[in-house]
Amino acid sequence: MNTSAGVGGDHSVLIVGSGPVGLTIACDLRRQGVSVRVVERNAEAGYTDPHSRAILIIPRSLEVLGRIGVVSELIKLGNRVPIIEYYSDGKRLGTARFNRMSDSAFPFVLSIPQRLTEAVLRRRFEELGGTVEYNTEVVEVEPGPGGFSPLVTLRSGDGAVTRFAPGWLVGADGAGSKVRSAIGEKLLGDATDVTYLIADARIDGMDAQRARYCYSKDGVLTIIPMPEGYFRVAANIPHLNGASDDADWQNVLQGCVDRRMGPGLVVGDLRYVRAVRPSCGRVGRMQFGRCFLAGDAAHVVSPAGGQGLNLGFQDAINLGWRLAGVISGVLPESKLEEYGPERTQAARRTSMVAATIIRFAQTRGTVRRMARDVGFLVADKVGLVQRFLVPSLSQTDVRYPMPHSSHRLVGRRLPDPSMAGGTGGCTATDSYSVAVWNFDRAAEKYSGDVSGRFRDAIPEGAPVVEIPSTRGTRRAVNGWFHQGAPVAALVRPDGHVERVARLSRRG
């Protein structure tokens, strides 16, 4: 075996894994001038796998992906799904209308095979001067002096072994993470245990702009429009005890559709089909000194609701702006300590949402199913589906814990002011910004009217974004700010509010 005993340290950040999460972090860091090395244990030829894998990108993920300049191409390649309909035994219960979102520039769920998402991210990484080192895997991770910079042993496809000391290490290498294993961390068990039959198929009778979630006493069925006229079909089935390669999946799927949705939909050509039994779980921590875990390396959630990949995208952006700020000297290293608590809480919340979806869909007993259906019908009729379910599925309602303030706005995502004629872009920017609301004069004239604590928290050079008080803006910010009172919000690069100050007018 060819072994190199040298220890290199030329790259600021070593990212293990070139899936969507790893590439998103890499792109975010590269465009901010951070030196990045990305290693991938698989060969590039592995991307020919016909499995479309994760297919949904939700509005909040599209917002934060705007930081790295890939959203336009993703939307061009994908299929917009503005509406999700919910059925029980073939009868519609209610509708989640993403196209009625007034606070985001992306009022839809984007359906796109993961292999296309990865291809877009890979091209963007290459445009930014990056390259992925394939056939390179992690063998060992040793803590550095004082528990800081780790020492990583890598093995390439030709057997050469190199020891490498990056300034920072990010494990984004999926559910079977070598980085997670090397540092001795495990996924804590999740009680969810469901086998899903997942297929990409033609379906006659389906609208290409509407997804369906269908509940029945037989189980749950999900049908989501994809590009090129295909649909993602997912249904829970009994656990398989033996080989299933020879199963007549065409008839199995048609039977699921007939029993759970009713007649009228015909399953056609199958481009891909597989039975999966995901092992779900979460790590206890996502940061270990200068080593971080992100995406499926840190949490594997049920595919119900299509939240897993999106959880990873937001890990990536949450970590990216912090790392870039610390490496450039703009932010203190203590900012990185907030990454783990924020994202573990988000993963816990998303796991609970997915588990609730499964329990809701698998309600047993005629009376209980009837109560579920009536409850959903009433919730849809009075607007609760639109008010609560849509933000939950969009992950626009995520609130991070901010120990220095209990203000109702702190920790929440600031709605996109550009949707209502604002000067734009607080949902994901390169730096901290100050959003000001309801001012009669130029916003800069009020920047000195805030408390010293708020003013001291503003990084030097943070731009001021004025949100004009118009009818459209009030609708977009959805009651965020106290009506009539001038307010300033310190907004993080990922669009979440860190501090709030109420201002007084001059003169």
Overall description:
- The chain has 3 domains: 3-55 and 113-186 and 281-349, FAD/NAD(P)-binding domain (3-Layer(bba) Sandwich); 195-276, Alpha-Beta Plaits (2-Layer Sandwich); 417-502, Glutaredoxin (3-Layer(aba) Sandwich).
- It is α/β, with parallel strands linked by helices.
- The chain is 28% helix and 26% strand.
- It has a 7-stranded mixed β-sheet. It has a 6-stranded mixed β-sheet with strand order 9-3-2-13-22-21.
- The longest helix is centred in the last third of the chain and has 23 residues, at 339-361.
- Helix 1 runs parallel beside helix 4, helix 1 runs parallel beside helix 7 (308-328) and helix 7 packs antiparallel against helix 8 (339-361).
- It has helices at residues 20-31, 59-65, 71-77, 114-127, 178-182, 249-260, 308-328, 339-361, 366-381, 384-394, 452-457, 471-477, and strands spanning 3-8, 13-16, 36-39, 56-57, 79-81, 83-88, 91-97, 109-111, 132-133, 136-142, 151-156, 161-164, 168-171, 188-189, 195-204, 210-216, 219-225, 231-237, 266-276, 281-282, 287-288, 291-293, 299-300, 433-437, 464-467, 487-491, 497-502.
- The chain is built from 12 helices and 27 strands.
- It starts with a strand and ends in a 5-residue tail after the last strand.
Helicity level? 25-40%
Give the termini distance in whole angstroms: 78 Å
CATH topology of the largest domain: FAD/NAD(P)-binding domain
CATH architecture of the largest domain: 3-Layer(bba) Sandwich
Going across the biggest sheet, name each strand in turn.
7-6-16-17-18-15-19
- pLDDT below 50 for ≥5 consecutive residues: which ranges? 1-10, 419-426, 440-449
Apparent shape: globular
Record field, number of beta strands = 27
Q: CATH H level of the largest domain: which superfamily?
A: FAD/NAD(P)-binding domain
Instruction: Compute the number of structural domains.
Output: 3
% residues in beta strands? 25-35%
In terms of structural class, how would the helical and strand content be classed?
alpha/beta
> For the residues shown, what is the average pLDDT?
83
- The first-level CATH class of the largest domain is given as Alpha Beta
Write down the Rg. Answer: 24 Å
Give the number of helices: 12
Largest sheet: 7 strands, mixed
